[in-house]
Amino acid sequence: MKKRPDINRFALLDYNFAAFEPGALVLDVGCGKGGQLLKLLGRRCQAVGLDPNIERVRICVGLGLKVAVGEAEHLPFHEASFDGVICKGVIPYTSESVAFREIARVLKPGGIAQIVYLSSGFYLRLFLLGQGGRIKQRIYGLRTLLNTWLFALTGRILPGVWGNTIYQSRRRLRKYYAGNRLTLVCETPSKCFFGLPVFLYHTLQSEQARIKPVRAFAPEESEEALTVTAS
Fold first, then answer.
1. Distance between CA atoms of 48 and 27, rounded to whole angstroms?
2. Phi, psi of 95, rounded to the nearest 5 degrees
């Protein structure tokens, strides 16, 4: 029986996204079922999660976590609310420029963002090997590669579901960082596939000077959002 390819062998499984100082107010964009939020609480941080999936948010609420329903492009929080942001594998499914603007907006001056991206090697591997050999995974990998190349050349994406994913490149990321006054503090290397990075682990720091607000959630917070007081 042919062994199923394991994407985890390319990931940095010991990478600590929750490495923030105790007491830090940290937002997890795309928090899923709350794994990173629990790790943040374990470090005595103040943890806030955001996810577009209402079922995942309900799971987090059931664990007693502070969460809100929302997307990376529309963070329902005031400017300069957070000491830190975690964003794991979310950016490929967003409007990149808007998501980075929002992340930069909610970070305090000197705030840290821990972000991991799915890069070209991830989708090339998916196209060539699939996941469990499934043809749908190969098609998904191919359309993501084509969509990203089209976006890089023209600024446009493929129509409909064909254009819902874009991988990240170092060159394009540098432009977003510069445009939002985010400094790349560290890139932690991960394994490559055919010489191309599968994941990119970036630690960013905000350079923007802003006034610290009283509350993290914006006035137009959703009914699903829980009130958080910034420290």
1. 5
2. -80, 100
- For 159-182, b/e burial (b = at least 16 CB within 10 A) is eeeebebbbbbeebbeebbeebeb
Residues 6+ apart with CB under 8 A from 171: none
Distance CA 226, CA 69 (A): 10
pLDDT, one tens digit for every residue, the chain (231 residues)? 344 447 788 999 889 999 999 999 999 999 999 999 999 999 999 999 999 999 999 999 999 999 999 999 999 999 999 999 999 999 999 999 999 999 999 999 999 999 999 999 999 999 998 876 689 999 999 999 999 999 999 999 999 999 999 999 999 999 999 999 999 999 998 899 999 999 999 999 999 554 444 344 343 444 344 433 333
CATH fold of 21-119+168-231: Rossmann fold (3.40.50)
Burial of 132 (0-12, 13-18, 19+ CB in 10 A): exposed
